[in-house]
Design a protein that fits this description.
The chain has about 130 residues and is mainly β. It has one domain. It is globular and about 35 Å long. The N and C termini lie far apart (about 50 Å). The C terminus is likely disordered.
Length: about 130
């Protein structure tokens, strides 16, 4: 019997596993998970998952960010959602339209809650022909 995906994140398209280190610019489609060390920049319209052993020093610009216990130093812009579960630690500012912070999370920074259109760079009622 197939195990049901209760997280709603579906299949992974890439994994930076535990014990790995990567430095640079990460651009991707789909869903990826980082369980190792990463420093640089991340860009995607899709889902980034930071696992319990992740140590990330990066500015992140994604559709959805899910932090499942790792540590993040850097600013986050998520057009759809940010979910942070204990015992995660985030040191940086977050801009998103929806956020979930679990009890026990360490968050040091500012959180700006905006409409999705504002995060995407447009404002409600703005002429889209520009």
């Amino acid at each position: 019997m197939a195990k049901e995906d209760l997280t709603g994140i579906g299949e992974l398209h890439a994994l930076l596993g535990r014990g790995t280190k990567f430095q640079g610019k990460l651009v991707f489609e789909g869903r990826i998970r980082i369980d190792g060390e990463f420093s640089g920049e991340v860009f995607s319209d899709d889902v980034l998952i930071l696992g319990e052993n992740a140590e990330v020093r990066a500015d992140i610009d994604v559709g959805t960010l899910i932090v499942r216990g790792g540590s993040l130093w850097g600013n986050v812009r998520a057009t759809q959602l940010v979910e942070v579960y204990a015992p995660s630690r985030i040191f940086g500012d977050i801009r998103t339209s929806q956020i979930f912070l679990d009890k026990g999370v360490v968050f040091e920074g500012n959180c700006t809650m905006l409409e999705k259109e504002e995060i995407d760079g447009t404002t409600v009622g703005e002429d889209e022909t520009r």
